[in-house]
Amino acid sequence: MTLRDWMIKGQDILKEACIEDYENDTRILAMFAFGISYTDMFMKITEDMPEEDADFFMNCIDLRSTHMPCQYITGSQEFMGYEFGTEDGVLIPRQETELLVEKALELTSDMKSLKALDMCTGSGCIGISYELKRRESGHKDDEVHLADISDDAIYVAQKNKYKLGSGCSIIKTDLFENIKDRYDIIMSNPPYIKTSDIDDIMEEVRTFEPRIALDGDMDGLSFYRRLATEAREYLFKDGILVMEIGFDQYEDVKKLLIDNHFNNISLIKDYAGLDRIVVAYATEHDY
Description:
The chain is an alpha/beta fold and about 290 residues long. It has helices at about 5-15, 20-35, 40-45, 50-65, 70-75, 100-105, 125-135, 150-165, 205-210, 220-230, 250-260, and strands spanning about 75-80, 80-85, 115-120, 145-150, 170, 185-190, 235-245, 265-270, 275-280.
């Protein structure tokens, strides 16, 4: 059978399984299973595919038909131009989270060297991307720490660190429990979905991604409450806290930050116009 035949078969299976983006997912899995690029796909579309590769492709299609995300099947996801390894038990990097890294880079662009913390790091995509982009722009003396409570996250972040040549340090901790330093900037994409809402989100996320990385407790604000309360003790004077939030959480998060004496609080919307990133400064601390 030709590549076209296999792709049609894969599309039919995924469409029947109610996979929303079945055509694109079939292309992704075909490139992965047959070891071809997007350009190769068009050049080889009428070629017969090796039986072993075709069997592997169909295994991938069968996995995707269960609603397992493509990123867990292929084991990778691009983020900020870098290819991050993804594994079961660790949240898949999201494109919208790139905005957090971009804003953090912008806010610290004038700092020659700094200390940064990525809290709730997961795959390490935020902190590692931040450190690599800073290094590419000539900042070679930064100290960037990645922190998470999950053993799975620590393992995947460690693999991504070495894969991408990052100099980040990784700390296992329940938020700030094992954090000893102060930082110029703390970045975080914490769990923020209300417990009652998790059963209503798409099956790919609900069934396959780790609940620990999603569940923000009854009101979705549990981690923001702790970050707002504790983060100032780990920031230098005028240090910056940058967090991703849910689309309807800004006013609640802003109040938590104000109550804990953060200032210059601002909101950045994502490319869909949804509330996405909150920035706050620790400017009133008894240092």
